[in-house]
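Sharing a chain and its predicted structure for anyone who wants a worked example. Both blocks are below, sequence first, tokens second.
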Amino acid sequence: MIWLRHKIQVRTVITFTYQPALRPALPCVYGPLDYREQRALFQRIDSVLSVSGLEEKFITLTLTERGINTHSAAAVRLERFAKYSVLALRTNIARNLTGLDHRDFATRLADSPLLQWFLRVGEMGSIKAFSKSTCDRFSRWASEQTVRDISEKLTALLAATDPLSEQVDPPAITFGLAEPIRLDDVYFDSTCVKADIHFPIDWVLLRDAARTLMKATTLIRKHGLKHRMSQEPLEFLSDMNTLCMKMTAKSHAADGRKHRKKVLREMKDLEKRIAAHARAHVEILKTRREETDLSESSAQLIIKRIVHVLDQLPAAVKQAHERIIGGRRVPNEDKILSLYDDQINVIKRGKAGAQVEFGNKLWLGETREGIIIDYQFYQENPSDTALVKPAIARLVDAQQLTVSNVWGDRGLASNPSTFMLEKRGIGNGLCPRNVSELADKLANQEGFREGLKRRAATEGRIGIFKNVFLGRRLLAKGFEHRQLAIGWAALTHNLWVVARMAEAEKKRREDQEQKIGIPRSRAA
């Protein structure tokens, strides 16, 4: 049973209780090693969630976020809200662990006793699985700040050395770890989280605009609202695709530049006609929506889709004209990279195979054990050197953590960062850019060489985080949704690391006890 408490000065008043449903025990399945490892992983994470108080804090934060007064709300409503809050928390963790999208996860949940047990939907006598739409709503159940607060609470529990009330051991010991996580060393690095867009070619943006406008126009016409057109909407798409193929036909020919200019002028004329037809159908939908079976919300969604593209179309046409016909450069801050997501940047990092990336910068800080204790997702594209100071402020000032040394590559080193670390009394493990200074530190600063070797493993941590927990390309649309998805991924990653460490510690203890003659069955 989870007890929710509301603190008033020094008194603790019990507001209401939430009783989790009784779930049947997991069936005895002796499957392949991969299944047994995944089963043990879910069991470990379930144990951490049950004893850590994370579920209790998540319910409290979401109640505050929704503005629900626990004193005046009905008990039935509070209990239902608590139930779905816990379900949302566990759903997002399980979905990030499995790497499935909403549809595939909902399908697997309906047929997986393990997931039903972890999500507590496999009640005695019935199984109540939810749909992909509910799974999608669960992904937005809480704000990014709430998810961040849960992650920070987990970090505080893992690093705590003082025992909690009514407990003999620190929280990390109750999670199955040998000792609390040490925050002496923090390893920083940044990366680019790529947006789910194709390579932003100027004339391809015009094709995207034509596709969106004509498909929306076709949808309006299907519901009985028509405006005179010289040809069917999808025929306009065929014409635009033909021009796209003509644009690439003479890419290496001697007169290729002249050819592209001519084709772009034809595309601009075609785009004008497409925009005019789409605009006319929008006006009809606004005035004669009652003649169709479309609801007001559905109609507004179609209108918003068309207007969003029409508003950007002049700038997209101008950008293509400037670059292809005028031969002039467009500043990165003025470029349209996607018609459907305007909160992404051009990030030039010079990486092998990715000289230029399109997305947003992600900052990560991990401990020696691999726990991500700091992350920040940036809408703009700040310099890496400017990110060290706010990271230290988040860890030391906001979370009240004790940090002894920070490590990073030469892209993070700067004089202001060095001065700030010296002022705070934190060891500077940032790799200097000056070669002679680097050689001096390697030769004379104790532990510097070993720290840089460990810092190299942070590159692998970033790869695991991006490729396993975020997916190779983050599918969430819009900066806020991507930011929230990163928060869920960071929380899931840390629970995954803790569960793996606990399992390794359990095996280590069993091996030691077997060496002294205690049977494995008794050791468990």
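Comments welcome. The first strand starts at residue 2 and ends at 8.
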